[in-house]
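Reviewer 2 asked us to include a model.

Predict the structure of this chain.
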Amino acid sequence: MSGIRAQQKEKTRRLIINAALNQLSAERSFSNLSLREVAKESGLAPTSFYRHFSDMDELGLTLVDEAGLTLRQLMRQARQRIEKGGSVIQISVLTFMEFIENNGNIFRLLLRERSGTSPAFRAAVNREISYFTLELCDYLQQANRLDAEIAYLQANAAVTIVFSAGSDALDADSKERELLSERTIHQLRFIARGAMELANRIENTKSEQT
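Predicted model (structure tokens):
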């Protein structure tokens, strides 16, 4: 395939992905979308859809993969902002809330398919959340010098709290989202202090045994 043809194919594939995302809303989940609706939204004939995806399930799994990648990129953006100074937790939460405000449909997809009826979709979402958690775990190990187990416990708790806050933030107004952000920041700080306290206790115990 020539470079131009490959670029055109990727462009068309992107049109289909964006068309599906644009049709998601608080009232419409991915399972409610039809192939014809997605094709029409992307300006393609239904037969053209099959040149890029074998069926709607393959498109849905692609959307889940993209949503997970977007989340991981979000964390990397937050770290870049952190490097310029400021509270790690505060910047991370505010970055996440900005993501919810600007990409609500992507987050809705993850939330819905995580508890949806399709085993393949549930597995894909859980895999993406696991990647997100492990990347945060690695960051906590390096930034706070925590051992792997404590860093994972903190990362897992943090992701659970942040996803819950994100769910509440989807249909919240700006004032409600601000209050949610403040509450989430406090909760994450409690967890961080607990993780450091546990790490210190373990270190003190080791010192006493030597």
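The chain has nine helices and no strands. The mean pLDDT is 90. We have added this to the supplementary material.
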